[in-house]
UniProtKB/TrEMBL annotation:
Organism expressing this protein natively: Liquorilactobacillus nagelii
Primary localisation category: membrane
Chain ranges of the Concentrative nucleoside transporter C-terminal domain: 199-407
GO molecular function: nucleoside transmembrane transporter activity; symporter activity
Source species taxonomy: Bacteria, Bacillati, Bacillota, Bacilli, Lactobacillales
Subcellular location: Cell membrane
Protein name: Nucleoside permease
Amino acid sequence: MLVVLNILGVLFCVAVAYLFSVDRKQVDWRSVGIVLLLEIFLAWFLVGFPVGRMIVKAMADGFNWLVEIAYDGIKFALPDFVSKQFGGTADSMNFLTSALLPILLVVPLFDILTYIGVLPWIIKWIGKFLSFITGQPKFEAFFSVEMMFLGNTEVLAVSKQQLQHMSKERNLTLALMSMSCVTASILGSYMQMMPGQFVLTAVPLNILGAIIITSILNPVKVTETEDKVYGVQQTADKKEPFFSFLGDSILGAGRLILIILFTVISFVALASLIDHLLALTTLKWLSLENIMGIFMYPFTLLMGFDFSKAFDLARFMGTKLVTNEFVVMGEVSKEVMHHQGIFASAHARAVLTVFLTSFANFGTLGMIIGAFKGLVQKEKVDYISGQVPRMLLSGILVSVLSATLAGLFIW
């Protein structure tokens, strides 16, 4: 019965995307079916198959090893920020130290791999494979993989030439897909708060889910002449000197930490303010989490949870959409990592972790539209801005689809 509910949940996501499609007649159901089967297989391999679980666990251990090395640098400068477990003098580590400061190692590392050509090579061949298997246009396939390594706004920035050559409809496709990405350089931070196995499982599922949902929400026919990949924009003819490049990367990582830190503080405070204002009504049930939980409730029921657990998870999911993933991860981390409450169930841990591992929230909408404003003509920006509801819906459906498929193979 639970498996049947999950399958209905997958079909429900597809049906909602079809209902809000820009052009239902143009949907390429063959391509959608192929990608969906590929995503189901991947979910089974990574969650339900022992070898797949071993691979994901090994990758998660690798990320955690990298984060532990990052603590050496933090400990050198700020020993009282790092716990005794990792050689510092603090009794425990706060959110800034445990989740954010390791970014100062992880981001430059990924940038170095880009500088020496390793990541571009990986992106190129995975993109070609996806394009060949799924029948998707070449650049859209590349873009889905690039997001994972570069981030949603960064990948748009380096694709300026491509965006300017593409139609406004294809630009919208990229905007829709950008709601579902999560940057690999931030995964180490997630894994300090949520199970690493499920964090890493979410990444490829979101890539394929983004292709499925955007293919339905915004089907675009691309001719052979239009199906070209233009070169990545270069800021100079010669490659920037390595240490200059590395310095910029470190500064960029620092800015990212401040952005996340200030955003989390602001969103938590604003959410608290809203809850305090709602409390003035003297209605005990009226809170921001409960309001958003009502919206997400049907989705969680179709993931196979009973009525009470479904609403608890729906509240967390809804809060994530209004604030961001870090806010919710910080709230549930202890229960999830210690298998307490509703998270005693591996199914609940998998579903919520995979759902949270994305950038789908209201703040991301502003970031993406802002990025397009600096990259393409006003006509394209206006067209994308008019599709904000579909952009948010895209992020929600991809997250729900990925979480449902991950939960399908673990109970």
